[in-house]
Design goal:
208 residues; mainly alpha
Amino acid sequence: MTGLHLAAYFGVGEAVNALLQKRVETDAEDGQGRTPLSYAAENGHEIVVKLLLEKGAEFITDNGYGGSPLSYAAENGHEMVVKLLLEKDAELITKSNYSWFPLSSAAENGHEPVVKLLLEKGAELSPNHDLAPLLYAAFGGHEAVVKLLLEKGAELEPKSNDGRTPLSHAAENGHEAVIKLLLEKGAEWEAKDNIGRTPLSYAAKKRA
């Protein structure tokens, strides 16, 4: 980890600017494959993100763990940082070895403004079923995000690799508002996953 990493992580704009004036390596990677920009984005340090982008920092990067700057910013709900990166045409779909996407990250954590931003820029509602943002939003119990995704045309019952639907995840976690919304849209209580479990059985277990 370099001094620029530390300054970016803590959002110390003056230190970042001073280091950049010395022409330090902007995209140096630490032991986890992360750049200063990724830390600044993760922690929502808008001024530092601006400084790094102005100096040509690489914004389409992935550390192999889903760690693009955009993914980190989206996961943590940093709307202004997401806007900055999108203005630079950051990849909306940055798939990693852990199959993580910015839209799914924002959806799981209930960051509705960020979800809206990404959709406006053309992020896919169903990049593939296992990564469908609706699965993540339902799992997290975020009614407003679930509603938004459905209004934008998200498939009602995408299935993850284990055969589970958004309703299944919402039922297991007791998210009643999301359950009601999905049922009103026609989701099936009796849809079986790969081990034969249904949303109804998950709900019953939750109440037991």
